[in-house]
Amino acid sequence: MWDTGFLQHINRNPAAFAAELENRITPQDQAEWQKGSIEDWVMGGHRLAQTVAYGDLSNENPSPITPEYERQVEPVIEIQLEKAGVRLAYLLNANLMHNGTGQKPESEVHKALSGGNPDIRVWVNTNSGTYHCPGTRWYGKTKEGGYMTQKEAQDKGYRPAANRPCM
Q1: CA-based nearest residue to 2, from 100, 57, 70
Q2: DSSP single-letter state for residue 51
Q3: Other Cβ atoms within 10 Å of 87 Cβ, number
Q4: Is 80 exceeded by the pLDDT of residue 9?
Q5: How far apart are CA 69 and CA 19, in angstroms?
Q6: Residues 83, 88, 90, CA angle at the centre, nearest 5°?
Q7: Which is nearest to 83 in space by CA: 50, 145, 51, 36?
Q8: What is the pLDDT of residues 11-23, one digit of tens each?
Q9: What is the CA radius of gyration of the chain?
Q10: Residue 145 contacts residue 127 (beta carbons within 8 Å)
């Protein structure tokens, strides 16, 4: 039921629903949801299953799924979908930085671990939640944004474009 049943009950256009979920995600959400390990994420989902999915169900077998129950769990499902999208993108971006041998090139490892030069001035695209380095295509050119140091951008939850901090 949790895998597809509730999504069918939400009864919205899938593309519009996905866009709505994406628009709710803030840079701070992204930064928070990317923290921890995959195991941490799994255990967080397990705790929600215990407290939300199964917590208020009756002991009947099978437990009836009432409209009230559906209304209560819908916001949890939506947040979990948002988290899943952010985390999948995070994992894909992190793994696409690997070279053909499955190893990150040394310079990419250094960039990823160092966080880049904290004092370099970056352009933050406040609409997408990413920041751009000097000399790159979108530096200072997006419709919404502003300049700040790379450290300020990272502290506010913005992430580097293409997961490449400015050096």
Answers
A1: 70
A2: I
A3: 16
A4: no
A5: 25
A6: 95
A7: 36
A8: 677 788 888 889 9
A9: 20
A10: yes
